[in-house]
């Protein structure tokens, strides 16, 4: 379903971020600290983000081809209560597929989510109320 009220905005940088944890051996960590001390990077996070961006740039073609092949929304896709009520009124169901961030408004009830969302596949982050996430648990892959 194409609805202009459903927002898809590509994002590559910004204030919104997810925290990840990685385990490194002491030698790797020491080398990172050495590069920071020598002024190549401002801190450990700067080096790690730079390394990740370099790898993503190296594989950008594969990512773009896969996004197109799998019909993923790239960026941000937000669903408001009004969006989902329109889907329900049209007697349709959504298959949400996002590479980035998918979010469901806080005022969406679990019942409305269950009535309108067939499946959720998010490579990145999925934001919804705990009640909506619990209701959709069997539909989130």
TrEMBL record:
SUPFAM superfamilies annotated for this entry? Ribbon-helix-helix
What's one Pfam family here? RHH_8
Q: Which domain of life is it from?
A: Bacteria
InterPro entries registered for this protein in UniProt: Arc_rbn_hlx_hlx, RHH_8, Ribbon_hlx_hlx
* Signal peptide stretch: none
Gene3D superfamilies given in the database record? Met repressor-like
- GO term, biological process aspect, one: regulation of DNA-templated transcription
Q: What's the name of the protein?
A: CopG family transcriptional regulator
Natural source organism: Paraburkholderia saeva
Origin organism lineage: Bacteria, Pseudomonadati, Pseudomonadota, Betaproteobacteria, Burkholderiales
């Amino acid at each position: 379903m194409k609805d202009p009220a459903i927002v898809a905005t590509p994002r590559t940088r910004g204030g919104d971020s997810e925290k990840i944890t990685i385990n490194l051996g002491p030698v790797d960590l020491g080398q990172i600290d050495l590069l920071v001390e020598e002024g190549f990077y401002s801190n450990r996070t700067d080096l790690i983000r730079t390394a990740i961006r370099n790898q993503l740039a190296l594989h950008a073609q594969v990512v773009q081809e896969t996004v197109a092949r799998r019909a993923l929304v790239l960026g941000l896709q937000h669903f408001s209560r009004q969006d989902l009520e329109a889907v329900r009124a049209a007697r349709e169901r959504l298959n949400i597929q996002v590479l980035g961030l998918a979010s469901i408004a806080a005022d969406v009830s679990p019942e409305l989510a269950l009535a309108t969302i067939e499946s959720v596949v998010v490579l990145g982050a999925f934001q919804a109320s705990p009640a909506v996430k619990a209701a959709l648990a069997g539909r989130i892959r």
